[in-house]
Amino acid sequence: MVSRLTGHKMHKMHMKIIKLAPKFLKADLATASKIGTDAAHTYAECCRGDTLQCFLDGQKLIAYICSHQDTISSQMKSCCEKPLLERVMCLLSVENEDKPEDLTPTLKEFVEGKDMCQNFSTNMDQHLLNFVFQYAKGHPEFSAQLLLRLTKQYHDLMEECCAIEIPEPCLSKKEEQLEKLIADSKAVVTAACTRHSKLGNYAFQNMLLTRYTKKAPQLEFADLHEYTKQLTSIADKCCNQDDGYRLKCSEGNVNIVLGAICQQHAVYYINRQISRCCSGSYPFRRECFSETTGLRFLVFLVKHKLSITDEQLLNVNVKFTGMVAKCCDANNHEECFSVEGPKLVAEIRTALGDN
């Protein structure tokens, strides 16, 4: 088996491919990988302040792209005809190529075929890189975060199903999970845009302010106000985009704001829930911040007994808070809520005399 990259290195490689693939539709995976690796090396030289090496590496990369433009992208021609010093900015700002209709891949291409598991086990890194490369090229409307989530879930299902003697039925069933992941990501953005459309900027920010105050009551008002103001601006900007850009615009910009919260948390500890989201998987960060399982459960409890007294409600809140703390510390919090939730419901029904 070919040696596997560490998670961090593979994540960086996937991000390079995600950024380059929609721009270079004609390029194959090997060419896109080379450009991504060389570009990252050039950026590193520039950021270290090595001006001469930065310039030399940059010119070498541009020369490679322009000498292979026919097999990389039709967008390169106008940039490569410019004077040498103008080519860099032109190439950096080049738009994505228009995607041919026959370029959109389907999940079936990656879960069907007798050699699929053999290819995965023999060279997992290359197999996953090809998966994210084909999806980034074929779905320019997908955000980087969705593509990374999709790749992670695809990796997990391949590991699970390929360990079975006859993997085909397992792979076919798991395909539905990948389809659901895509549908759920789109639904989250659609729901947020619907709320923004109905509420308007002011009420939408107030809603976010309430939500994030519950998530991070330790933050100062000025911080909460600024973060929710930025999130509201994102909704105002991205929800007016067409379907081809809305998801990418929303998730990409929201993750920048969440990244700012995580940077603040790294300097001034906020709370355990924020810590879990910030130290967890990057592509799942938005989902972690957006978790509402516990809130829905609490609303259900209150609605279940409208005549509940203040003392009874206090006891419910104490028990509920304990359950949330326990499940948020669990490795699989969704599974914990699904187990502990019904137990708590039964316990509270008994306490309220509702059997």
Automatic annotation (TrEMBL):
SUPFAM superfamilies: Serum albumin-like. This is Albumin domain-containing protein. GO terms for molecular function: small molecule binding. PANTHER family: AFAMIN (PTHR11385:SF14), SERUM ALBUMIN-RELATED (PTHR11385). InterPro entries: ALB/AFP/VDB (IPR000264), Serum_albumin-like (IPR020858), Serum_albumin_CS (IPR020857), Serum_albumin_N (IPR014760). Its main location: secreted. Gene3D superfamilies: 1.10.246.10. PROSITE patterns: ALBUMIN_1, ALBUMIN_2. It is found in: Secreted. Keywords: Disulfide bond, Repeat, Secreted, Signal. One of its GO terms (cellular component) is blood microparticle. Pfam families: Serum_albumin (PF00273). The lineage of its organism: Eukaryota, Metazoa, Chordata, Craniata, Vertebrata. Residues 1-180, 181-346 form the Albumin domain.
